[in-house]
Amino acid sequence: MFDPMYFIIIAPGLLLALWASWKTKSAFSRYSRVRSMTGLTGAQAAQRLLDGAGVAGVKIVPTSGMLSDHYNPVTRTLALSREVFGSPSLAAIGVACHEAGHAIQHARHYAPLWLRSILVPTANIGSSIGYIVMVLGLILSSANIVFFGAILFSMVLLFQIVTLPVEFDATARAKRLAVEYGVVSGQERGGMAAVLNAAALTYVAAVVSTLLTLLYFLLRAGLLGGRNDD
Fold it and tell me: Could you say which of 31, 44, 48, 54 is the most buried, measured as most Cβ atoms within 10 Å of its Cβ?
């Protein structure tokens, strides 16, 4: 059923997400054409950060997929997309150092990273079931079902909120340590930072979009003073 109210409420989050995605791709594309003075590849840059921080036992491997870079704390594997792994560009170095920042967080027992790992199972349940339950509640005109679905879906929001300090801290570590360990010069830091700052916006957009989705269903069900009838 078409509901204009849905698009009115969700629109700011959608626009922010689209803008953040465009800004990230644009920054990465621009600085992927700028070679670092050191000539280090993304993989070598990540290794230098880990060595400088005294973090051993982390495997750095290539993986498929555009910007699919991630750190797995369970296997202690830092997976870099192929356009990052072997590229000496400022964009590649920025992404690789950011992921190395997560590995350093893990080694330093950074509390928000630990909390985020704990929340993964509940967030997966909330994302796969919560939305469906909320929709079902509206179809059945049951505020109780919508509320139950909202509780499940709020686990996604909680996960995303906890993710913010994790990502911001990894970015801050990457910017600081890349210069400190000679991966990039002070003049090059700005290009690397442009890529990481743009990527950080995508996490903010995710929080806003999820929050607005919850707001819509709660309003539509009459749980926040809205109406559940047409």
Answer: 31
